Amino acid sequence: MLDRLQRIARHLLPVRQILIGLAALGSLVAGIGLFAFAGKEGDSLLMPGLLVLLWAATGLIFVDVFAHVPHPPEPSWNPMRRRIQILWRGLHWLFAAGFVLLSLMAADVSLHIAEVWLEDRSQ
């Protein structure tokens, strides 16, 4: 599974600059909505800006963490190097579990923000 995540992250590596730009754009739009406008006018910019920032940051974290996953240990390596490699891969498994939780929380927050944003726009 880690190897598959690494292949996906390496495939998305050229998109990293776009994700950085989207995160900057999302924070800029959210900042403008927060500080330049008052009330519902600001919320119409703040909420989509936060969503763009959230998903761009999530994608950026994925690409940065999983682009360089350590290889499984070789039997010919000395025992200390094998243990270090096993621990390093175990840490990446922990990162994968944390990323699944982060993605689920981001989806929940996105649904909540979209619901509030659409409710405010309908009034």
Q: Label the overall shape.
A: elongated
How confident overall, as mean pLDDT?
90
Q: What percentage of amino acids are in beta strands?
A: under 5%
Number of domains: 1
Give the CA-CA distance, first to last residue. 46 Å
* Estimated radius of gyration: 19 Å
Order of helices and strands: HHHH
The number of strands is: 0
What oligomeric state is this? single chain
Protein structure class? mainly alpha
| Percent range of helical residues | over 70%
How many helices? The count is: 4
Unreliable residue stretches: none
Explain what the structure shows.
Helix content is 82%, strand content 0%. The mean pLDDT is 90. Helix 1 (2-11) crosses helix 3, helix 2 runs antiparallel to helix 3 (40-66) and helix 3 packs antiparallel against helix 4 (79-122). The longest helix is centred in the C-terminal third of the chain and has 44 residues, at 79-122. It has one domain (2-122). By secondary structure, the chain is mainly alpha-helical.
